[in-house]
Amino acid sequence: MLNFLKKQTGFSILEIVVAIFIIVMGMVGVLSLITQNIQVQYINKNNLIASQLAQEGLELARNKRDKNWLEGNDWIFSITPGNYKMDYTGYIGIVSGIEETRLQQSNEVGREGYYWYGGTVNTIFYRLITTSQASPESLTVSCLIQWADRGQTYQYVADTVLYNWK
Does the pTM exceed 0.85? Predict the structure, then answer.
């Protein structure tokens, strides 16, 4: 009978502990990868929003230049060198720094999801549009988007040059 018990095959407690340890280590690695992936996805989402807001800021300055031409004003009227906040409604405000430029979102029907200065919900994004005159016939426009997330401040900058080619 003793001989029969010695010949039985099976797992020892040590083999089971080692197998569980290997499985747990693999799970910890996968969980760590999933957590890091979610964080990177959130950062990338905000970078994409910031890049689009910066491009919109440049387009707003370009639109103002074109509107000045149509109205018969000087091409840099109301976008002379300085710091501005602008939105898609045509609003232009002179500001002293980025802390005055927090974008908002609206919950109004037809305007939900838009970033502007007349909304009801503050966003994490600030947009500062800076203009400087490079020459009498050109204007450098820089759009700085800034936001804070999890204790870290991020920035995205886009630049262009507008010309008085008319």
Answer: no
Tokens 């005159």 -> residue = 133
The pLDDT tens digits for 9-41 are: 666 888 888 889 999 998 998 898 888 888 888
| 67-90 core/surface letters (b: 16 or more CB in 10 A; e: else) | ebeeeeeebbeebeeebbbbbeee
Residues linked to residue 130 through DSSP beta bridges, in sequence order: 83, 142
E strand segments, the chain:
82-86, 92-94, 102-105, 115-116, 121-135, 138-149, 152-163
User: Would you list the domain boundaries of the chain?
Assistant: 13-163
Report the C-alpha gap between 158 and 146 in whole angstroms.
12
pLDDT in tens, 92-137: 999 999 999 999 987 777 777 778 887 788 999 999 999 999 899 9
Contact 78, 92 (CB under 8 A): yes
> Tokens representing 82?
């300085």
